[in-house]
Amino acid sequence: MKFEAITIKDIAKALHLSVSTVSKALRGSHEISEETKKHVLAYANEHNYKPNPIAQSLKRGLSKSIGVIVCNIDNNFFSAVINGIESVARQKDYNVIITQSQESYEREIANSEHLSSRSVDGLIISLSAETKRVDHLIKLHDKGLPMVFFDRITDEIATHKVIADNFKGAYEGTRHLVQQGFRRIAHITSSSSLSITLERLEGYKKALADAGLTFEEKYIKLCPHGGMIKEETQQALTELLQMKDRPDAIFTASDRLSTTTLSLLRKMQIEVPQQIALVGFTNSISADIFHPSLTAVVQPALEMGQLATDLLIQLIEAKRPVTEFQKRVLDTELQIRDSSLRAK
């Protein structure tokens, strides 16, 4: 359902009633006649009236709750971020309400509307793979709802942002493959609309350029849902393997894409790294025990969640409007394991 900005004042003006009467009618006050209540409620329902979370918080103080929107919580990276969010929220006596977009733009809209109707004091959000427009979030932000973006961010809203150094992580992962002697390095990545996709693609390209290797578009495979739909990853991998000059290494750009690619290569009976080497972004605690163990660019997920929450609570509890915002870029770490090491 589309979020509408109708207010109590709008209802009062339309029905030629006082703001106080409308407010009491919406609360079911005994001071208002049943006929007036019925009239007010009918108009409110017809025009999709929803209580303004900011106005409510001003009246009764903070709700001490934070809304979180991530693509899915069974992703190792997002699970760790949530742990970071909850650790700081708990220390500062805030409750956390977690929702999942499942990489759906429509679900992201529904989640943001639901959380705002629950009168959360602020939002921590990582955009879905389908999200190309953020009008739904701009509306909430313009009404005064504090929000902080992490990982998958937008430049259309002036607020705090927390990301990993995606360019550096991708550069180091690709450079490592080059140093191991691989030359036809493919890149399996997420939706082209996501900030992380663009930043990691640039890191991959720069590593190739610095090594004197030509960037070839044919080695780039986009998975619009970031690996959540296994068939997308399988199709991308199949297309790469069917090439005459198929890649001798693959760099994958997200947690789910990395672990799924390794699993699919094994099912396809492709030996890693003997036939195709693999480096990926992943925070999986199982990377060491995969067969072979997976070389990974690791993000400081826990710290990202902690920092995002600290920044959001600062916005929520600020005594004056905040006009200066931070974009915090945290370091990544390349952990080298068997999946990328060329046999000597």
From TrEMBL:
It comes from the Bacteria. Residues 6-60 form the HTH lacI-type domain. InterPro entries: HTH_LacI (IPR000843), Lambda_DNA-bd_dom_sf (IPR010982), Peripla_BP/Lac1_sug-bd_dom (IPR001761), Peripla_BP_I (IPR028082). Keywords: DNA-binding, Transcription, Transcription regulation. One of its GO terms (molecular function) is DNA-binding transcription factor activity. Transmembrane segments: none annotated. PANTHER family: HTH-TYPE TRANSCRIPTIONAL REGULATOR GALS, LACI-RELATED TRANSCRIPTIONAL REPRESSOR. This is LacI family transcriptional regulator. It comes from Puia dinghuensis.
